Predict the structure.
Amino acid sequence: MLDVALIPGLPLAGFVILALVGSRLPRRAVAIIGVGSVGLSAAWALLFGAALIASHDVHQSQTLWTWMALPHFEAAIGLSLDRLSLVMVWVVTGVGFLTHLYSIAFMADDEDYARFFAYMNLFVGSMLVLVLADDLLLLYLGWEGVGLCSYLLIAFWYRDPKNVRAAVKAFLVTRIGDAAMAVGLFLLAAYTGTLRIDDLMLRLPHTFPAGAPVVVAAAALLLAGAVGKSAQLPLQVWLPDAMAGPTPVSALIHAATMVTAGVYLIARMQLVFNMAPAVMAVVAWIGLATLLLAGLSALAQRDLKRILAYSTISQLGYMFLALGVGAWTAAIFHLVTHAFFKALLFLCAGVVIKSLHDEHDIAAMGGLRRHMPLVFGAFTVGAASLAGLPLVTAGFYSKDAILQAAWASGPHAAWLWAVALVGALVTSVYAFRALFVVFLGETRREPARVSSLAMSVPLVVLAALALLAGFVQTPSQLGGISVFGGFVGPAVGGQVGQGGGGPGWLLLVASGASLLGLLIAWVLYVRRPATFARLADAPAWVALRQFALEGFGFDRLYDTMIVQPFVYLTRANVGDFVDWLYVCLAEVARLLHGLMSRAQTGRVRWYAAGIALGALLMLGLVVLR
Amino acid sequence: MQQVPLEHALLVAAILFGIGLTGLLARRNLLFTLMSIEILLSAAGLAFVAAASRWGQADGQVMFIFILVMAGAEVSVGLALVLQIHHALKTLDSDAIRQLRG
């Protein structure tokens, strides 16, 4: 029997084995179990998916068992595979497998080898539960599972307090969104009596008219959950700090898969969002603001991984923009291509950072082109795809689909498009800045040799995908291929919003923005770095750069608004006034005890007198009553 | 045979009880404490016997035999304890033995 449950089951089984006996197994066995479980899952997903497509019935539901059955509410552990989740499964298992393979070499010297692979397997399993869940409650379980793994893996090197702080920050900030999402689920469950996604989609339109307050509230709460998980404004502050984890973790969790869960959630719950147009508009504007601000922040960063982190936030902003204008397919398309090129960039960054002995500052890098040509080539492909270099890269096609959709959307369409275009220019500048500063110029530090087959293979495969994955969906002027849209479209429905919605010059302008960004980066960082450095030292510019470096002061804002008052309150309450009541009780008891123990003199005659007196008292009571 | 009035018997019992109690509270030697307890028990026994004679029922006598048995047991345990205490602490002054004070 073809079995959906095998897809998340294999990585979860790998986790169980590694968690129980991993520390006693030899490293080779740990690697085989850790990578093999995800690899098998990927292969199975590929075969299973292909078989489903061949049979033209890409909708498999499987109820494993009943989770809870209440009089008016029932939740089942059920998996459901449709076209949307199949795409997600392929991305998660595919990129997951490549990242695991890379980790064999990357984590080779780490003492906690088994723990790393156990967490990674648990992550892949949870993520697969999330995308395959038939029921929003199960989806929430996966959602929390990936959050937990994110926390565990950010703090993987827990001996450094900085990493633990970053992990706690990530956990708490996403918790805000998760709490809102839980309330949203309660709302939906309370008003429709089910959290099964299919039933919900059937019942909701009959229960409420479009724009009903309950639906708007539910959509807004779900959006809050998505915003937290996908690091959008105003909850984006955790992602740059999350780079404290090992680089494969950043590649898999904080770039390719977990952070896209918010996008998946909105695409999955699109009916709810369609019924709340106001929230849809908010989604678009949040995405727009995020993509621009995060892009500008990325321009100012000096830490290679933080550049990529801000870039991830910015690209997720593009996906939110696409979701907000109803271009579901474009959002998922960008999710897929982004997963490939951003995982590629992170894995390249991992090699660079490792070879320079944990150096993150791009100012200390340079000239690495000659020392690691393969990584240089891979990073070039990744950066080009991120920048959306026209015609040859996957990023170009997916970003263009979003720009076209923004152009074709309702009111304010021109604004959405224009800001997204500026964002594309900024993206191109920072992508090529990283490439040029790290790989061109003169060698500032001699790198050590770290490359191995396990590291090179994922880079090559991902580079190929970052180039070729775009050709499944091209605008009408460039062939109008619509394999991706044709495949995912029926699952996500709504407007396809691509395949040539806008006029042809949109394509030219988008290409121009990308090439202009390349040119600017070339002039600033390769042709005339000295002139630029002089310009950059102007006081106003330095202040602005510092502001962007700190992510536009969000951290400081939250620090003064939330963290400091909280710390102040805890200081004020260091004596714990609630505890006073209990302290008083204890004191009274102690006082009474002192009094009573005074009577226990240890003298037999004293006790005898007590007994006699007591007997006399009793007798007196009986007689005089 | 002239019956002793109940009041007299009870009066004697009360006096005996008072003597016993006074001895119990006043004497510090443990041997005298034990003897005082014997007097207290005898007072109670006398009251039982007198009451039984007054009502013409045997229950009082039965109670007295119980008290005798109990007193015998009490004295044997008490004397054993006194011996042990003397052995361990070299004193029988009950005020000096205060190791159990709280």
Summary: The beta strands of chain A are 60-70, 73-81.
